[in-house]
Amino acid sequence: MMRATALSLHELSYLCGGPRRAVLTAVLALCQSEQLELGADGRAYRVDETPSTAGWPVEADVVELAVLEVVTVGGIDLKAIVETVAGSRAIRQTRGMLAARGLAPKWWPGLTGAGRRARREVLANPPEGLRRIAVLGPKAIEDAQLRRTLSEPSYRTERQGVHPTPVRRGAASNA
Fold it and tell me: What pTM does this model have?
């Protein structure tokens, strides 16, 4: 069985929280490496004023490169980053890597049985640091302001294989 510990940071975040969490984890990784700054206003700003990613290392992660391509010199709202990159080629490539490892079906959303087992394994014993945030999401962030910024309803991620439509309990029917 494929172990979740063998996955890259963004594969792990996709496995545990889907495309949006993979993007948020990439934003946090770029902030940690001092390539981006995240303002209290929910906007991401480039630390380096260069307008393109042409000078970035080739070994950089594709999701992080996709985030860098979206962030303009003047900054951009985190919601726009998440929406743009979550539907990008980089996220499809990350999902493709999970499919190649047998953790996600090739053509359908969700995870395979092996993917669900790997996710349960890592949720039972979350790693430390940024990988912990990739697994548990924003609730694992110690800084309260950063946690609030990343926990806004528009940034929340859905677990793979769980229907995203909220269930209203006790709501009266308008029919």
Answer: 0.79
